[in-house]
Specification:
The protein has 12 helices and 8 strands. By secondary structure, it is α/β, with parallel strands linked by helices.
Length: 266
């Protein structure tokens, strides 16, 4: 169940996609494309916790790992998600090592953390595999800390040094905004901040991740040291595909009309 953390800590390149429509069907379609993991977005996505179970069930047969971005670094948000059987948690806006420690505590059972112990939930096979899950969960769940501000970049080394932190994940849009260069993803200030985050992750033996604005930029991010690499989202894919299809149809129509004007009786 916890293969994704082993691969991440092994510094394998893993590809994923955000899932922000709250739909089990689009989650399943994206997972079946072959992605290593899906990032189900409860912070900015259209779905809520009530929609999560259907998405997890939809992708269970695909081999894609389930990582969920919670709304906030609050204990109840972690419990609801973890008990449904996800394989990792992404925590937004982690600016300090103390916030990272708080997140890890939310993911771990006592005495290492503050996660409540429950048996009859999906993660524990509704009680049938509680002992195995309880034994392995603390060291098996993937913990992804989002680096989204100048403060977080400054504290990247301290955040990476926290026991249990696996991935320093750059949110490029928020970080660019914090740097005063909103959505300028090729700006030298943003790229230097990303290099700093990657160096901090590497020095601590952790992994660097980023939401790639463009798949074509993979070589750049790989060369910088990034290995945990989601790209796009189910909503973004649908939007792009729909617009491209309409553009193709509209172009074909214009060509056909132009040909008719030149050869009106053909």
């Amino acid at each position: 169940m916890f293969e994704i953390r082993r691969r991440v800590l092994n510094h394998d390149v893993v590809f994923g996609s955000f899932i922000n429509l709250g739909s089990p069907l689009t989650a399943e379609i994206v997972a079946m494309a072959g992605f290593d993991f899906l990032l189900i977005d409860l912070e900015h996505g259209a779905g809520y916790e009530a929609h999560l179970l259907g998405q997890l069930q939809a992708i269970a047969h695909t081999g894609a790992a389930s990582v969920v971005r919670v709304e906030a670094n609050d204990r109840p948000r972690f419990h609801r998600v973890l008990d449904l059987g996800v394989q990792g948690i992404m925590i937004p806006h982690v600016d300090t090592a103390e916030q990272a420690k708080h997140a890890i505590a939310n993911m771990r059972y006592p005495p290492a953390g503050v996660r409540g112990v429950a048996i009859s939930n999906r993660a524990c096979g509704f009680g049938s595999n509680f002992a195995e899950y309880f034994k392995n969960a603390d060291q098996g769940l993937l913990a992804v800390m989002q680096i989204e501000s100048t403060e977080a970049v400054e504290n990247a080394e301290a955040i990476a040094a926290v026991d249990g932190v696996d991935v320093l994940f750059v949110g490029p849009l928020d970080l660019s905004h914090s740097l005063g260069i909103t959505a300028q993803f090729d700006h030298p200030k943003l790229l230097e901040a990303c290099r700093k985050v990657a160096r901090a992750a590497e020095s601590a033996g952790k992994t660097a991740g980023i939401l790639m604005p463009k798949a074509e930029d993979f070589a750049m991010w790989f060369g910088m040291g990034y290995r945990f690499l989601p790209c796009y989202s189910d909503g973004g894919m649908l939007n792009t595909a729909a617009r491209n299809l309409y553009k193709t149809l509209h172009t074909a129509k214009e060509k056909a009309l132009a040909l008719t004007e030149v050869h009106p009786h053909s």
